[in-house]
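Aim 2, interim progress: modelling of the XIL-bound target.
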Amino acid sequence: MNHRRALRAAVTVAVTGALAAAMTMTLTSTASAGTTLRASAAEKGRYFGAAVATGKLSTSVYATILNREFNSVVAENEMKWDATEPQQGRFSYTGGDRLVSHAQANGMSVRGHALLWHQQQPGWAQGMSGSALRNAAINHVTQVATHFRGKIHSWDVVNEAFADGGSGGRRDSNLQRTGNDWIEAAFRAARAADPGAKLCYNDYNTDGINAKSTGIYNMVRDFRSRGVPIDCVGFQSHLGTSLAGDYQANLQRFADLGVDVQITELDVMTGGNQANIYGAVTRACMNVSRCTGITVWGVRDCDSWRGSDNALLFDCNGNKKAAYTNVLNALNAGPAIPTDPPTDPPTDPPTDPPTDPPTVGCSASVSLNSWTGGFVATVKVTAGSAGTSGWNVGFTLPSGASVTNTWSATASGSTGTVRFTNVNYNGRLGAGQVTEFGFQGTGSASGVMPTCTAS
Ligand code: XIL
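Predicted structure of the complex, ligand included:
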């Protein structure tokens, strides 16, 4: 063993390591040189995923590419309603569970797709309507999201609920006919069942600013303003031979509503533009700091639902296509998602003593969405200057009002004086940090005032 050479090598590694660390600290947008999609995306704080047919996990070419290139998966069919609840009230999770274990064994996160959709419904649901269907649908959301609780990065809670064409309105479907509020009911049920999952609305033909994407935009804005729990919007991006010039601007306008955006089912028609379009979509995502990941809808061309479109990143033999190279380069060239706000060292020590004493404890405010005979309350809890390790919010409800359902908190009591305590993931708040919980009730809650106690 040549010790001198070994030492020189070690020193080179150490110096290069220090240099790299120094560079990443100062320049978040420095080009990097990951050599797989998953490594390059991860370096930029994002995921790169693929839709998986679990039956193919035993095909070695398929599994090799999947495990090498992707750090997120979504079930191509196995978590849809027809697969998970083939008979009413009888749930089947074999395919979904298999995918989750594969993901956990290979360091991948899982997108859940899709809790409610007008397609791929089991026959029994297709034949239902009205409140029977509404109750069955909400029960489906609750059961499936509860089964996978803690294992799903993002759920497509509702898929493809908007109409194509110029109306910007909802698509007609059995679910839509149960009442326009079916989407928010689904999101509330999903939040209650799995508070740790990001909850997404997902759709196609939304790849630019158009009537359909604007209809969805207006819904998301409305949900955010009323406290309906929505965290992300999925853009399927099943693309043809051109890309809308305002693809990135469209992602950005949704991000500006305070939701994450994700490219969820990317595939692109073959032809001269395929590689360019793949590159442009990836760049657009990288340029939007709330674009947290990209999923392609399959691994090899022959795995694609688009038949002869050859729409994916690998050919049928598993070779990388030009589109792959463009995606990898765009990931490597793009900026990282900013982590913490920049920490500039303080310039001068503060001179004046603070005037107002800091607020300790916590404060709470409530916004009510009421109708005759019922209400939903969304409560915002803000930590005082000392932060909290737990909190408790109390209300005195008017007589006749009663709490029926709570999310992101635990209720004690349902009438009169009712108290809500944090759950395990939202009790610890930094100074000034805010969290939300909610409850639903019958009767009227108008005029109620919350009191907040921190521990
Ligand atoms: C497709 C699957 O890829 C096919 O295997 C299945 O036969 C039909 O559904 N939008 C969606 C996906 O949200 O669930 C669809 O997946 C493709 C279009």
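The chain has twelve helices and 17 strands. The CA atoms of residues 167 and 211 lie 7 Å apart.
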